[in-house]
Amino acid sequence: ALKNQEIASTREAARRFNVPNSTLSTRLKGVQNRAISRANSHKLTDIEEESLQKWIISLDTRGAAPRPSTVRETANLLLAARGSIPVQIVGEKWVYNFVKRHPDLLTRFSKRYNYERAKCEDPKVIREWFSLVQKTILSYGIDSDDIYNFDETGFAMGLIATAKVITRREFYGRRALLQPGNREWVTAIECINASGWALPPCVIFKGKVFVESWFDGLPKDWRLEVSPNGWTSDKIGLRWLEKLFIPSTSSRI
């Protein structure tokens, strides 16, 4: 009606159509409705945000998930590439709002992961290894009952873990539990058969003399050893073969 000059003023048009005069004035100036316009915190276009999301997912897939500061710097590079003056930058909280807008992304704590271990989890390497194992089994006619896998693992005794405890009501927050000074290293040798049964473990404690009364209550078929540092050795490995592996497997033939 205003464009056709049917109504003389915006104030009169606002009164007739029952809308605020300020709203009508801003719409005539080209300002979009807040509900359909992009928020100021977005800064990047839809295409730019989609590209940034794909870049983050690509890095995460390769084990190099970026930090929030890196994502913020990349967003600023995208804004700088527009060539506008002054150059826009995103705020300190922009990255967290960006993550909230994209359900495929999540902020979480990272952990260190050894590169050599990660290489061993390469699907191509794993498939090649299993193919070689399968060819060897078929070539020599090896039965699953004759296939074993064994490994050793170590852990420290006396490490406090997170647990629910009962404390006085006056304390606020998590209670600290005193860490015992004894954190001696213990090694366990474990072995499993391809058909699904496992051998009793061999546990190696730190010590010079084996005292049987220390281990009261453990299963009788467990093998217990001692070494100066709680690690395995060639002699312990040989005794494991002679005293545990061969007797346990020979009885099943």
From TrEMBL:
Keywords: DNA-binding, Nucleus. This is HTH CENPB-type domain-containing protein. InterPro entries: CenT-Element_Derived, DDE_SF_endonuclease_dom, Homeodomain-like_sf, HTH_CenpB_DNA-bd_dom, HTH_Psq. It comes from the Eukaryota. Pfam families: DDE_1, HTH_psq, HTH_Tnp_Tc5. Signal peptide: none annotated. One of its GO terms (molecular function) is DNA binding. One of its GO terms (cellular component) is nucleus. It is found in: Nucleus. Residues 36-108 form the HTH CENPB-type domain.
